[in-house]
Amino acid sequence: MTLKIHIDDSAPSYEQVRARISEQARSGALPVGYRLPTVRGLAESLGLAVNTVAKAYRALESDGVIETRGRHGTFVAAAGPAAVREASSAAQAYVERVKRLGLDEDAALAAVRDALRAVYGDG
Q1: Kind plus residue range of the DSSP H or E element containing 68
Q2: pLDDT 10s per residue in the chain (123 long)?
Q3: How many structural domains is the chain composed of?
Q4: Residue 71 and residue 84 in contact, taking contact as beta carbons nearer than 8 Å
Q5: d(Cα 51, Cα 56) in Å, to the nearest integer?
Q6: Contact partners, residue 5, CB within 8 Å, separation at least 6
Q7: Which residue range is the domain that position 59 belongs to?
Q8: Which of 29, 50, 61, 104 is the most exposed place for a label (fewest CB within 10 A)?
């Protein structure tokens, strides 16, 4: 999965960047937790001014499509109620932790299944 943006003359550049990222995030092409390029990096790759991309990122953040986590970067945000957002954030933290621990996907998922069974039972 990679961010795909093509800029043409159909609308202002910042609006095209905003719309493309928003569409890809809402469709799932860019999943929750996907780390977006830096403003400067995306501006360079698209041949746009840094302020143009920064304006698009600000609009996306205000729309709740992306979230900036300080020095850690800018990520696709969870859509929906606060509980869903919090769960997605916790899941992202879990994934980062199991990766640091060297667990593969199967082991990470097995740990989640075990924890869910402990709380919710087998049903």
Answers
A1: strand 66-68
A2: 688 999 999 999 999 999 999 999 888 889 889 999 999 999 999 999 999 999 999 999 988 899 998 889 999 987 665 566 677 778 888 999 999 999 999 999 999 999 888 887 875
A3: 2
A4: no
A5: 9
A6: 16, 17, 20, 21, 42, 46
A7: 1-77
A8: 104
In residues, how long is the chain?
Answer: 123
Tokens representing 61 are 């953040």
* Residues 27 and 84 occupy one common structural domain: no
Residue 21 in contact with residue 74, Cβ under 8 Å? no
* Residues 6 or more apart in contact with residue 98 via CB below 8 angstroms: 107, 108, 111
